[in-house]
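Thread: quick sanity check before group meeting

JM: Hey all, I'm pulling together slides for Thursday and realized we never actually wrote out the predicted structure for the chain we discussed last week. Dropping the sequence here so it's in one place. If anyone has concerns about the input, flag it before I start.
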Amino acid sequence: MQQIGKIALVFGPTGAVGKELVHLLLNDARYEKILVFSRRVLEIEHPKLEVILDTLTDLAKFHEQINGHDLFCCIGTTSKKAGSKENFKKVDLEIPVQLAEIASSNGVPNFIAISSIGAGKPGRGFYLDVKTEMENQVIQFDFKKLSFVRPSLLLSKRDEFRISEDAGKVVNSLVSWAMVGKLEKYKGISTRKVASAMIEILNLDKPNLVYESDELMGLAKV
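JM (edit): ok, ran it. Output follows.
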């Protein structure tokens, strides 16, 4: 029997996946409260939604508020936005790990974080090495349910133009027909499907530790 009346905690609610996640959670009867921690003002209001607006540079001060049933970590940046490798690691490594540490100490039972396709093995370049290290550090904390999603190219309507990503989407659309079997996980996936799959994963009795793009496609309810 699925649990109802749950409290969801969302970090990164204004990102491509985070936006979709918040909308889906607000319309999910299993959740009675959606508590989001955001650097930017959200464009939506809802009776179930509570927003904590902050730079999130000091998560320790939110120790008491990081409490609920399901924590969704959608925190992430790009090398261009970060400006340096050090800043990139602060966002994509240090914040998720600190969140996991606080959530675990507070007894939050379920934790899920966005990683990346190709993560899991060291020596694959700076970006994937950071994602791999994030997974390896988060897994040390105690959760009833812990999962990482490793989506391939994310397909969405971005707030800003990113030429490299747009080029990747064109290439993906041209060759996706050939991506079958072991290659299926490399197909592009919509941010909405990733968000939907994340919710379903934390509502499974025994979720897997890692989910690739093709598995996310199969779990998504949208």
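AS: nice. Residues 159-180 have pLDDT under 50 and may be disordered. Strands lie at 6-11, 31-38, 49-53, 70-73, 110-114, 145-150, 154-155, 189-190, 210-212.
JM: adding both to the slides.
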